[in-house]
Amino acid sequence: MNSAHLISVRALNKTFEVGLGGCTARARALVDVQLDIAHGETVAIVGDTGAGKTTLLRCLAGLLACDSGVIERRPTRPDEAARIVYLADPVQLGRLLDGREKWDIAIVDNADTVLGDVNGAFAVLATARHVRSTGGAMILAARAQRAIASVADRVIVLERGRVRGGEAGASTPVARVAEARSRMSR
Length: 186
What we know:
3-stranded antiparallel sheet, Rossmann fold, 7-stranded mixed sheet
């Protein structure tokens, strides 16, 4: 694993059994996902409902076992385990910023629910600023790219459990441009 990465994912696969009674089928939620997340980076995972976003986040957080593949998590401090916080609601980010809870990686599902919510949007922005200054990382998932693209350093699109483009970290850089524009307008 590259020391510049807090998380490295290789060949991650996850399948669920779906159905009722004797009528079941296998549904592939994640297919050969490759991903690297660097120190100080905020990454947005976007895709339609059922694309595999929540499954990927839960695997990254260690809340759900993958069927195959490797997830390596590196702490921001040597000789410690990576401290990961999984939040199903971005409004909960406020509790991470008060300093009482120690964490390296914040994983936030349903990040697009902050649209129209000033407190939630502020918490997402403040957390992104925090991870850049501390060397941690934040991973956001949303259906709508426009909801979080201005906060993220990269946007990774999931389609039917696959990273579009297939490459590790295939993405679109966005936040650095938005940040530069913000500085220029001051």
